[in-house]
């Protein structure tokens, strides 16, 4: 085995460990919070899975598990769709981490356990970003993916406002007209959220394309047969 092949093997192993480890920690933390704290306190299970943090943790965990399994099975060529989905979910989990750790550091966490909070609001966002940087996408992301990535946050905001108006539950106060100065205030806050997502989306795409061009082109020029494959 050449030194480059050995490095590729080490990189593959590290990717598998990071992804499976991150997914395991995230799901354990979420399920522990749900079954040990949330349900015994009489909270709604449905409402538990309406929080953007929980949904984003589930998404990144699925991406981590699927990509790790592909690595284990020797899958070598992720599709453009695979790459686009991964990039979008990196945007969502990064948004969770950035917003919580900059704007909500003094927020009342209620019954949320501190160690669960640390895993879901800090560790998984960091792992998602680190994973994107260490193993950038193998395919170039077109500008159009930014628009596709914005569909989920837009749908989530509309769903949260409409559902809250129907049953009174808002996952976050900025979706609640009573706490945001009416629907005009909600609209302004949602607009600010969209701007934040757009900035992150353009950033994730730019970083992914730049790192992808550098890493995979360099490795292909050295020893094409030894490159770390399947890292969507």
From TrEMBL:
Keyword match Membrane: yes
Stored InterPro entries: Pr6Pr-like
Keyword annotations of the record: Membrane, Transmembrane, Transmembrane helix
Keyword Transmembrane helix tagged: yes
Taxonomy, superkingdom: Bacteria
Sequence intervals crossing the membrane: 16-36, 48-71, 83-103, 115-134, 146-166, 186-207
Coiled-coil parts of chain: none
Record protein name field: FAR-17a/AIG1-like protein
